[in-house]
Automatic annotation (TrEMBL):
The protein's name in its UniProt record: Flagellar biosynthesis regulator FlhF
Pfam families: FlaF
InterPro entries in the cross-refs: FlaF (IPR010845)
Superkingdom of origin organism: Bacteria
Alphabetical list of NCBIfam families matching this protein: PRK12794.1
Source organism (scientific name): Paracoccus jeotgali
GO biological process: bacterial-type flagellum organization
Length: 123
């Protein structure tokens, strides 16, 4: 029975790790795309707008998941990430209007990737 339990826990941990890895990989791709599109925004604004949209979609999807009853993250972390998603949506709107820089979104994404990978520096 204990062997089965250990196997079950291992599978559950692998699933959680796999989900975190998948989220980190997706967010990394979106971040790279957003950074590259920002560099050429003057020449290809449609590409930049699409990258902003895709990044925003990631965060709104994450917020929806975080707000669901089935989400098992600690409540405080969920609230903080939902708040961060709200910031991303608002900043994205300002970015589309050209009134802010993309830098804040890139830093949020990179910090989140580090957190998902378990490499966030602690001070």
């Amino acid at each position: 029975m204990n062997a089965y339990a250990a196997t079950g826990y291992g599978v559950a941990l692998d699933t959680v790790a796999s989900a975190r890895d998948a989220e980190a990989r997706l967010l990394s791709r979106l971040t790279n795309r957003l950074a590259q599109a920002a560099e050429t925004a003057a020449r290809d604004p449609a590409r930049f707008m699409a990258a902003i949209h895709d990044n925003e979609r990631f965060w709104t999807t994450a917020a929806t998941d975080l707000a669901s009853d089935g989400n098992r993250l600690p409540e405080g972390l969920r609230a903080a990430l939902i708040s961060l998603a709200g910031f991303v949506v608002g900043h994205s709107s300002k970015l589309r209007m050209g009134t802010v820089s993309v830098d804040a979104l890139l830093e949020i994404n990179r910090s989140t990737i580090r957190g998902l990978n378990g490499t966030e520096a602690t001070s």
